[in-house]
């Protein structure tokens, strides 16, 4: 039986280019090569699609993050599939391990839909609304989930609603990995924080900071059913105000405590809320759902990541591992789910 050819697509034009490369490195190292033949495809920061050597290594070296080189063997995307050097790459399933804009926002998913390419993860609409927090929050609220109070602004000239009290979080509506996010403790810091966020996105959310635990739950669609992981708490070093890019990726200052230490019955409520959020936006395949468990005992949804960080030590695979599914088995299950999902019909 011939192996399934899996196009692992990484890099991209977003600010999370480097983290995508690290995630791809993890998949390349762990994918079951008895079942799958990986084809590594890199999208450069300028947007070129390149066929990369199978032995490419994307690792963090001396604090330097890996990137897709700007030159190489180009790939063309056609209605017949992905071609390189006049030859069809014959990709059976695409695994777009792309984070942020152009990868996690429905755009590449739309491209796959147009050319009839099967792919891992959620469809166009679920990706688009999950990526844009200003659209995701009303969907969560209408499904009966608690969301943090906030407002959306598009310039540094705005009036802050009187209901919002410091501290606040200011974040780009459509950025990930906490890029462009600032914790604001006083009115004198607010304008600068909004201007900083506007360098990442044209739309910015100002949101009430929630005092409490940061809780994450992984959802997996596999073997014809949806399942949730035990929930985990993100505990960061005291030197960080919040779980930002540096804390996430560069200095090992984050600890995942799983199962999280919560009052009786709360974990089950968070797991139910995660499934509700997954279904409310129409996710498929996988998602990591982030919550706060507030000091006044409220479960508040923060966001959905439709293509969460995917290195072997990332939160999503670590949480799924708690259910007895290894990193390699997780990769296999996601590809097999993608093979069963219909394209150009229900998505």
UniProtKB/TrEMBL annotation:
SUPFAM superfamilies: Glutathione synthetase ATP-binding domain-like, PreATP-grasp domain. It comes from Candidatus Nanopelagicus abundans. This is D-alanine--D-alanine ligase. Mg(2+) 2 binds at residues 303, 305. It comes from the Bacteria. Its main location: cytoplasm. Its cofactor is Mg(2+); Mn(2+). The gene is ddl. Keywords: ATP-binding, Cell shape, Cell wall biogenesis/degradation, Cytoplasm, Ligase, Magnesium, Manganese, Metal-binding, Nucleotide-binding, Peptidoglycan synthesis. Cell wall formation. Residues 137-336 form the ATP-grasp domain. Pathway: Cell wall biogenesis; peptidoglycan biosynthesis. The lineage of its organism: Bacteria, Bacillati, Actinomycetota, Actinomycetes, Candidatus Nanopelagicales. ATP binds at residues 133, 169-171, 177-178, 207-214, 302-303. It is an enzyme of class 6 (ligase). GO terms for biological process: cell wall organization; peptidoglycan biosynthetic process; regulation of cell shape. One of its GO terms (molecular function) is D-alanine-D-alanine ligase activity. It is found in: Cytoplasm. Mg(2+) 1 binds at residues 290, 303.
């Amino acid at each position: 039986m011939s192996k399934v050819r899996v196009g692992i697509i990484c890099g991209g034009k977003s600010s999370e280019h480097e983290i995508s490369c690290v995630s791809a490195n993890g998949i390349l190292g762990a994918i079951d090569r008895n079942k799958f033949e990986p084809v590594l495809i890199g999208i450069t920061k300028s947007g070129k699609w390149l066929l990369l050597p199978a032995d490419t290594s994307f690792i963090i070296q001396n604090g330097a993050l890996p990137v897709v080189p700007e030159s190489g063997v180009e790939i063309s995307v056609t209605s017949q599939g992905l071609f390189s050097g006049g030859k069809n790459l014959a990709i059976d399933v695409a695994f777009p391990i792309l984070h942020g804009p152009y990868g996690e926002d429905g755009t590449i998913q739309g491209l796959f839909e147009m050319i009839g390419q099967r792919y891992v993860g959620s469809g166009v609409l679920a990706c688009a609304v999950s990526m844009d927090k200003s659209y995701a929050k009303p969907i969560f609220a209408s499904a009966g989930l608690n969301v943090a109070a906030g407002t959306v602004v598009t310039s540094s000239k705005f009036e802050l609603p009187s209901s919002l009290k410091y501290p606040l979080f200011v974040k780009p509506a459509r950025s990930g990995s906490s890029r462009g996010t600032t914790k604001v403790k006083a009115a004198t810091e607010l304008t600068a924080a909004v201007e900083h966020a506007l360098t990442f996105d044209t739309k910015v959310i100002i949101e009430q900071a929630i005092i409490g635990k940061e809780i994450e739950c992984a959802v997996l669609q596999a073997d014809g059913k949806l399942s949730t992981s035990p929930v985990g708490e993100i505990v960061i070093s005291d030197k960080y105000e919040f779980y930002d890019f540096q804390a996430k990726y560069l200095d090992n200052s984050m600890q995942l405590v799983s199962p999280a230490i919560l009052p009786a019955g709360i974990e089950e409520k968070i797991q139910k809320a995660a499934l509700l959020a997954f279904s409310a936006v129409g996710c498929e395949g996988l998602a990591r759902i982030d919550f706060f468990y507030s000091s006044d005992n409220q479960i508040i949804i923060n966001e959905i990541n439709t293509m969460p960080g995917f290195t072997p030590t990332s939160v999503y695979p670590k949480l799924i591992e708690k259910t007895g599914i290894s990193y390699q088995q997780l990769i296999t299950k996601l590809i097999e789910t993608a093979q069963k999902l219909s394209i150009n019909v229900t998505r």
